[in-house]
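chain below, 213 aa
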Amino acid sequence: MENKLIAKSFLWMFVGLLITFATGAVVASSERMLTSVFQGWTYIILVIAELVTVIYLSSRVHKMSKTSARIWFMIYSFISGLTFSSIFVTYKVTSVIYVFLIAAVLFGLFGLIGYKTKLDLTRIGTYLMMGLLALIICMVVNVFLLNSVFDLIISIVCIFVFLGITAYDIQKLKKLNNSDLPEDALAIIGALDLYLDFINIFLHLLSIFGDAD
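prediction:
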C-alpha cells in the first residue's frame, strides 16, 4: 500500500513535469506564442493564475473527485509550462537537459534518503519551511538590489533547502498513507509537493550552471 501510494505520486509528478516541459518547449518554438505569453499583462496574469491554482488545489484536493484532482493538477502543470517557456529561450537546450539530469539524480538521492531514514524529519521539515520563507523574503529584496553575488548565494541555499524538503516530503507521504484520505487524493498531494520540490531544485541549479543561449 505504502509503495503503491509513493509510486502513484511519482507517476503523477512525472506527468506534471512532462506537461510543463512540453508546454514550455512548444511555446518557446513559436515567436508568436512567446510574444503572447510575455507581452503586456499576460505574464503577470499567468503567474497569478499559477499561484491561485496551486493554492486552490492544495486546499481542496482532499474534497475533489479523483478525476477533478487530476485535471486540476494537469491545469497547474500546463500554466507553469507557459511561464516556464522562458528557460528554453534563455538557456541552450543541451544545458537545460544536462541540468535536468543533475537535478533528477539529486532529487532521487534525497528522495531515497527520506524513504529509508529512520530519523523523524518533522522538526527538520519545520526549520526548512522557515528557512524557505526567509529565502523568499531575500529573493524579493534582491529584486530591487539586483546583486548577482547575493543571488548566487540564495540559489545555492535554495538547492540545499529543497533537497531537504524533498526528503521530508517523501517521509511525510509515507505517514499520510495511514490517514483516512482516499489514496488518489493523497497521490495528487504527494505529486504536487514533489513536483514543486523538483522544479525549484532544477531552476536554481539552472541559474548557477545553465549555459546562456
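The mean pLDDT is 92. Residues 20 and 81 are 4 Å apart (CA to CA).
thats it, cya
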